[in-house]
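Dear colleagues,

As part of the handover before I leave the project, I'm documenting each prediction I ran so the next person doesn't have to rerun anything. This entry is a single chain, and its sequence is reproduced below.
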Amino acid sequence: MNPPLLIRRLGRQPYEPVLQGMREFTNRRDADTADEFWLLEHDPVFTLGQAGKPEHVLAAGDIPVLKVERGGQVTYHGPGQIVGYPLLDLRRLGIGVRELVERIEQAIIDTLAHWNIIAVRRAGAPGVYVAEAKVGALGLRVRRGCSFHGLALNVAMDLEPFRRINPCGYQGLQVTQVLDLGGPGSLSAVEDVLIDELSRQFGLAPQPAAAELPPFAALVAATCVA
């Protein structure tokens, strides 16, 4: 029997409380803690990865910019985009960071294939692309052998904020979304497939969990809000 992957569908959330909850979950988990996959939408926010250069934010306007510890440069999160946080014990899975990235990319590629959208990865530029446009971004961190942060898949959103940045540090990089590529505009429909594909990539059995942060993560998140 495959080990469980607890699925938490959190709806729309501000960025910082979820970030703090994710950090706390990773810090407190032990060898017996089940892996989890959090799915949500964020309120509008730009995030700069640990090597992110502020000059790649061209005109943030009224959207906040936050510096975080994930890999990668700058990206945008907002309503209509699936953000997925795979909180995985890589040691237990027997994989390294490169394989983690490749499997997440493949899960997105296989998800899009359900709607006959042909997507690919690019060497040296993590993420998922359709033709020359980016549809899915990755930004990960591993601490104590466990992953946090994750993926962002554009489904049916306002793409204008991407024009305020150099997405992922690439000037002029085009972005696209599932709806414009002929897929569904329903986040829940895409999430259903993404859950199955990501679980398959890691040999895990998806199990629904409460649509809320785990207790100790929720406590830290609540403190962040206060």
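Residues 119 and 130 are 5 Å apart (CA to CA). Residues 97-113 form the longest helix (17 residues).

All the best with the project,
I.
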